[in-house]
Design a protein that fits this description.
By secondary structure, the chain is of the alpha+beta class. Helices cover 42% and strands 25% of the residues. The protein has three domains: 105 residues, Haem NO binding associated domain (Beta-Lactamase, 2-Layer Sandwich); 37 residues; 159 residues, Reverse transcriptase/Diguanylate cyclase domain (Alpha-Beta Plaits). The chain contains ten helices and 14 strands. The strands form three sheets. The protein has a six-stranded antiparallel beta sheet. Strands 8-9-7-12-13-14 form a six-stranded mixed beta sheet, sandwiched between helices. A two-stranded antiparallel sheet has the order 10-11. Strand 12, helix 10 and strand 13 form a beta-alpha-beta unit.
Length: 318
């Protein structure tokens, strides 16, 4: 990375690495200031100007692309000069642009050591990024697991509370539908708990199938489920959804050659019927409506009206 100049400013000799940077050009005999632009000190346009800059750090760059930057120091020699060049902070660009290796640098050049440090830092940063990504994935998985019912894959009570708090704070309208299975204990007693688990998984599939992507379906107890239907408070539409769910729950569930038979009772509260909807109160009121359905059922659906004279409205099945 050195160049020797004649008194006229022409290159008489160039180091091997410098020649590698411009393999298609004949450096010997070329005018130095036509190959390089001296950016500092300013006003260097002739060999005499270069020689006056002896001992001063030169800032240069190639005039043609890639316009690699250099640092240099000039030492007068005979009527010409010797300029020792280095890449400085342009080293990484130079290694990339010219495919340089350690063999292209002098054994005493600390550039190679710097490259090793940069490579080590890059490797460490890459390893750190991968570790952070793995930790982030693990964190997301842990959070997802903390909000998920492991048997059915539905949201759990913790996730439901989070959804209700968010809806309550936003003032959005919603319906809260509490579903409890009828005759589920008989399934566990006669066919065993594996059959009961299978039934719960089938119920989860039915509830997800009867709701929209923006709705929430959660398992909050052994055979209890809660549906949060966002933006839906029309009693006719809600009763149609409840009736479809009840009808599907009454269909026998096959399990190992046997048929598990259940039904469902549902209680619903509507945020639009409250002056200031409170999720805890709505849950309690939906629970009251549910048990009204169970007393009059099975397979019934009841709305809770929290007006001045609270009352239940049970919608009889077909």
């Amino acid at each position: 990375m050195h160049v020797m100049l004649s008194g006229t400013g022409h290159v008489t000799h160039a180091g091997a690495t410098l020649r590698k940077l411009r393999p298609a050009e004949r450096l010997n005999g070329a005018r130095f200031l036509e190959l390089f632009e001296v950016q500092r000190p300013r006003g260097v346009s002739a060999m005499a100007d270069l020689r006056r800059a002896a001992g001063v750090k030169l800032h240069l760059q190639f005039r043609d692309p890639p316009m690699t930057g250099f640092k240099g120091v000039l030492v007068p020699w005979q009527d010409g000069a010797v300029i020792n060049l280095s890449f400085g902070i342009s080293i990484l660009d130079a290694v990339r642009d010219y495919a340089l290796t350690s063999a292209d640098f002098a054994a005493t050049d600390m550039t190679v050591e710097m490259l090793y440090l940069v490579e080590a830092k890059s490797a460490a940063m890459a390893a750190s990024r991968k570790l952070n990504q793995r930790l982030q994935v693990a964190k997301i998985a842990a959070e997802e697991q903390a909000f998920t019912d492991t048997l059915t894959g539905l949201k759990n009570r913790r996730a439901l509370d989070h959804v209700l708090d968010r809806l309550g704070a936003s003032g959005a309208t919603f319906a809260l539908m509490h579903v409890d299975l009828d005759h589920f204990k008989a399934v566990n007693d006669t066919l065993g708990h594996p059959a009961g688990d299978h039934v719960l998984q089938e119920v989860a599939r039915i509830l997800v199938g009867e709701t929209r992507d923006e709705d929430t379906v959660a398992r909050v107890g052994g055979d209890e489920f809660v549906l949060v239907l966002q933006g839906l408070t029309d009693t006719g539409k809600l009763d149609a959804i409840a009736r479809r769910i009840i009808t599907r729950l009454e269909q026998p569930v096959p399990f190992e050659g046997e048929l598990a038979r259940i039904s469902g009772s549902i209680g619903t509260s509507l945020s639009s019927l409250y002056d200031r909807p409170d999720p805890d109160r709505m849950m309690a009121d939906a629970d009251l409506a549910l048990y009204t359905s169970k007393r009059q059922g099975p397979a019934q659906h009841t709305f809770y009206d929290p007006g001045p004279d609270p009352k239940m409205l049970t919608v009889p099945g077909p």
